[in-house]
Design a protein that fits this description.
The protein has 12 helices and 8 strands. By secondary structure, the chain is of the alpha/beta class. Strands 1-2-3-4-5-6-7-8 form an 8-stranded parallel barrel, surrounded by 5 helices. The protein binds 3-methyl-2-oxobutanoic acid. The site of 3-methyl-2-oxobutanoic acid has 12 residues, from strand 6. 3-methyl-2-oxobutanoic acid binds next to strand 6.
Length: 272
């Protein structure tokens, strides 16, 4: 057996079993090379529908299509071997009915080979999550700030900053747990609320702008690398790749303009 064949991918069940144990490390990935780099340190690669904004220059995740998610999902699966790859179900592909969600979810899984799907919504999506899980699709839930609802929420706003909002958000996290989700993302949720939900639910709570007390964390890779222009204020910049790209491209442009060979040497000089 080749060494490649011996690498076993993490499963939704493996991630579920990490509740209260070793923190789950997760980042988004949209391309094969970034997936290969990120999975060296990550348990879960999320092909987030944030790719609409990060890669395609859209204003929100609302216009993202099933085809876009499948294309990027295939790339991330090709680039990775060990991480669990979770693909977002895009807006409009699952909200209508459990049957619609299962049909589109099955298509994503068949065409990409990914290990799980993520969808947004708490109590209102619980029966859909149950339907999908019962039929073989592992589901990661996503509550708190749900970016696909930006047009209803009136912007990308933190959730649970008023204690009056807490019961509904707690009920959302409990409903998706009860419905069989293997993990739940808590996005932009007030810190003490995120800590309380993490302590309350039996599945891993994965925070993004939520609380260090969560069972794991996820960030948009391009945000934390400093590749995207405006990042949410909870994002720490772990690198500044935009500056590095700018420096490298400027150096290349200077070489071209000065008619310097833009490589280490004249590689294809005539030999005889
Ligand atoms: O689309 C995405 O990248 C996400 C994460 C921010 C959790 O859903």
């Amino acid at each position: 057996m080749s060494s490649q064949a011996q690498i076993k991918r993490l499963t939704a069940r493996d991630i579920r079993s990490r509740k209260g144990a070793e923190p789950i490390v997760s980042l988004t990935a949209y391309t094969a090379p970034m997936a290969a780099l990120a999975e060296r340190h990550c348990d879960v690669l999320l092909v987030g529908d944030s790719l609409g904004m990060v890669v395609h220059g859209l204003d929100s995740t609302v216009p993202v299509t099933l085809e876009m998610m499948i294309l990027h999902g295939q790339a991330v699966m090709r680039g990775s071997r060990r991480a669990l790859v979770v693909i977002d179900m895009p807006f409009g592909s699952y909200e209508e009915s459990p049957e619609q969600a299962f049909r589109n979810g099955a298509r994503i899984m068949q065409e990409t080979g990914c290990g799980a799907l993520k969808l947004e919504g708490g109590q209102r999506m619980a029966s859909t999550i149950r339907f999908m899980v019962d039929r073989g699709i592992p589901v990661m839930a996503h509550v708190g700030l749900t970016p696909q609802a930006v047009n209803v929420l009136g912007g990308f706003k933190a959730q649970g900053r008023s204690r009056a909002e807490w019961p509904a958000i707690i009920a959302d996290a409990e409903a998706v747990t009860e419905a069989g989700a293997f993990a739940v993302v808590l996005e932009a949720v007030a810190e003490p609320l995120a800590a309380e939900i993490t302590a309350k639910v039996a599945i891993p709570a994965i925070g993004i702008g939520a609380s260090a007390a969560c069972d794991g964390q996820v960030l948009v890779l391009d945000d934390m690398l400093g590749l995207t222009g405006r990042v949410p204020k909870f994002v720490k910049l772990f690198g500044n790749l935009a500056e590095e790209v700018d420096r490298a491209v400027a150096e290349y442009a200077a070489d071209v303009r000065a008619r310097r060979f833009p490589g280490p040497e004249q590689v294809y000089a005539v030999r005889d």
